[in-house]
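Changelog entry: the Late embryogenesis abundant protein LEA-2 subgroup domain-containing protein record was regenerated in this release. Current contents:
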Amino acid sequence: MGKTSTVSSWLCCPCRCLFCGLLSCIFSVLATILVIAGVVVLALYLLFRPHLIQATVASADLIDFTLTPSTWILRYNLSVALSVRNPNSRIAIHYQSVVAEAYYQGQGFARADLPDFYQDTGETTVLPLPFAGDHPLEGGVAAAGFRKEAIDHASFSVDIKLSAKMKLKVWAFRVPGPKPRVDCPLNIHRRNASAPAADGPQEFHPIECRVWF
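Regenerated structure tokens:
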């Protein structure tokens, strides 16, 4: 019995050594690939120094923003000019599936699908965001918040959010980029749609938006 066990162990030993050597080789190759990839990524980062895009609400005009008491239907007419800048000096950006949404009291009430656009290095693009229509507000809390803002100062807290897909152009190469999220909290005064055109919108100070990936 002892001899049989010794012979079996002796026969299995070469296989075991071959398996261990194969695993060691695979791990060595994987480690080398990871190290090389890390060095390449670090080199590209140091070379191109990618920066987050910058977004600013340049203007906003709230012509109509009224709530029907019996049905809680929100009627709105809002125009926003959103300035988007590519601060990178070596990376151009192609924006796709661009969507802008407007929120009030945490509820989305309007959406605008925008065309794709391209930004060269250091370029700024102004996106016109027109929102007009009507939408029901859900829950008495939102309606109560609307009445309070309308009575207190006739200005309303509206959030403008933008999302898109990116393709980055580095030299002649195009690579998929991150999906940016833009959030612009606004406090806008409502003006009467029947007011004379000469009155125009109230003075608006540009507002920096939060951008993250």
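The longest strand covers residues 155-170.
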